[in-house]
Every structure is written in C-alpha cells, then in structure tokens.
Amino acid sequence: MVGKVSCRIGDKIMLKKIRGEKKKMSEKGKHKDGKRVAVVGLMALALLVLTATTANCGSPVIVSIGNIPDLPQGTEATIPVMITNSVQPVSSARISLLYDPTVVEITKVEGGDFDELSFNLDGGEAQIIGYQFGGSLYTPITFADVTVRAIGNPGETTPLNIKIHEINMGTGSPIYPRSVSNGSVTITAPPPAVPEFNIVGVSVLTGILSLFLVISRSGKREK
User: What are phi and psi of 76, to 5 degrees?
Assistant: First the structure.
C-alpha cells in the first residue's frame, strides 16, 4: 500500500515537471514568434521609409536660375527660378538663393505658379517658400520671379547659387534625387546719361524760334 502511494506521489511530481517543461517550451515558442513578428515589422517599416524617401528614383528633379551676363549698373532685371524634370507632382518647395549683396540687391520676389509664395531676405540669402492649397503642380514649374538690381561696379560678378531645403509631393513625402543649376549676374557700365533740359530754357528757346519764324515770314511778305 505504501509503495502504491509513493508511486502515485512520484507520478504527480513527474507530471508537474512535464507540464512545466511544456509551459517553458510554449513560452519559448511564443518568444520566437514575437521575434519573427518584430523582424517582419521592421522590414516593412524600412521598406516604407525607403519608398517614401525615393519618390522619384529616376533622373533628378532640377531647380534652376538663369544668367545675366550684362546688367548695366543701376538697372534691374527679373530672373525666373524654375523647377523641372520631376516625374512626381509637386505640392511645396523651400529653397534659398545665395548671392553677393555688395554686387546686387534683390528688390522683388513674386509671381510663380504656386498658390502661395513667401520670402525673407537675410544679407546675401533669399529664403523662398511656395506651396499649394489644392492640387499639386507638374513640371515645368515657375517657382518664383526674382528681380535683382545692379549696385556694384562694372566688371563685378555675383553667383546665384541655389540651395534646396525641401521639395515635396502632395502626400508630404520628399522628392529625390535633386539637382541644381546655378546662375550669375555680371555688371556692365551704366547706359549713357540722357541730358536733362531746363524747362525754362526750353521755353525760352521755343519762344525765340517762334519769333524768328514770324520775322522771317514778315520779310518775305514785304518783298
């Protein structure tokens, strides 16, 4: 009888051990499954980020500004800043235009195809932001019309260097890759001065000529 009782107790202890091992194995399996889920999730996130940051994996979207090789001193000219070569539609952009403020000054930043355009001038940097309220734009896009005034000396040149901060799609995802095409302005001699006539002098001269014509006609009649 005692042997049977001790056997039953041993069986219970063994059963408990087996159940414990099964529980441990089950927990290990869950842990492995959790690891698999985590790895799959990270891979999916990485793919999403890669997709978002390579919205245009072909040729680069280009932001460009032209050259003015002969801007006479004291005069102004307007140069468009363009966005071209984007497969994706553009909803917003933020760029800086860097220049030498001792050679030219920017007097106006306006126009463009975006619904809203704002800018800030800080020394030799014009920070420009354009964005759409509604639908996105397809390239070619006129980002802004920048008007510069030649304030330096003839022969001086300033680069017009573009720095791209953002170019985004309607979803907010950035468009890559990107490229810039910079420009420049060279100052030439000012146009020849047009003489300013004194109004009183012109009036007197006109009166003299009129009197001369009257006398001349009178002489002809007397003959």
Answer: -120, 160
